[in-house]
């Protein structure tokens, strides 16, 4: 069996990028017979960027409701909250002591924060906490705790999976073969979904289209996608257009080919956006209703998460015991 694992950080409301980059492929993978799925809410990761307790809590509910509304079968998949698995921070420490500092210096998220400080003329470490610096180690622990083979993620996370492999290799080399080396699974067809302003769709840029807006708000957001000033009838370049890119992430190949043709024939932006709204809405409309029901009933979400925590800990607890023995903090046998 192949073990598939992925997580979403609980800051903010899930958006179309999270859906096409992670949730949709993960749910599809969970329905394949040969897979065992572990999907979780990365709430320890949230604390790195968000120190507003109310927001972390709200986001945890929203992201949990999203997975459930989209049809994740929790009898089949293990669906849990990272912070319910106490073995994860423990494993993080074991891995921290096996991780080269130089590896963390190269992590994108940390480097981007340093570069931004330099550009602003600040001290390079200004405002950077140790959580951000060692974030890839916590992520490695998430993955290695369950010996995942496959990790479906968007392209922005690939480096972190490679780091998890590096860390696992180093641990295995020193203490014996304990960890499976994970592989990132990226849907190349989708790539990194662009946001309203054409940059990567990201909570940090405030350019997202949340997944479960009301129809009216969804329409409004899609209308806000930045386009160039070409008039109806003027040919438009699909390959540089966010409208087209989002279309492609939701459409069948035939629909994509049709839209490409429409672009070349100069479809009006208003019309293209109207069609995009209809396409996205038709795919998420039903789940939206279920999502709203779930949010109104947090006790149901909590029950699901408790069930998942129990299943996840049944794997994690014996494994961490074995690792404690491997590193010598528990006597073997
Ligand atoms: P996060 O919460 O930023 O994003 C969750 C998932 O959504 C994908 N994604 C995108 N995909 C395509 N286009 C976009 N614009 C876009 N924006 C986000 C991300 O690639 C990700 O797959 N550190 C991780 C969470 C995490 C994790 C893990 C993932 C913690 N531990 C272990 C996998 C395995 C993060 O912050 O993702």
UniProtKB/TrEMBL annotation:
Enzyme class: ligase
Entry-linked InterPro entries: aa-tRNA-synth_Ic, Rossmann-like_a/b/a_fold, Trp-tRNA-ligase, Trp-tRNA-ligase_bac-type, Trp-tRNA_synthetase
EC number(s) on file: 6.1.1.2
Entry's Gene Ontology cellular component terms: cytosol
Catalytically driven reaction(s): tRNA(Trp) + L-tryptophan + ATP = L-tryptophyl-tRNA(Trp) + AMP + diphosphate + H(+)
Matching SUPFAM superfamilies: Nucleotidylyl transferase (SSF52374)
Top-rank taxon: Bacteria
Residues reported to bind L-tryptophan: 142
Short sequence motif 'HIGH' region: positions: 10-18
Motif interval(s): 'KMSKS' region: 200-204
Functional summary from the UniProt entry: Catalyzes the attachment of tryptophan to tRNA(Trp).
NCBIfam families from the UniProt entry: PRK12284.1, PRK12556.1, trpS
Assembly information from the UniProt record: Homodimer.
Protein name in UniProt: Tryptophan--tRNA ligase
Origin species: Microbulbifer yueqingensis
Gene: trpS
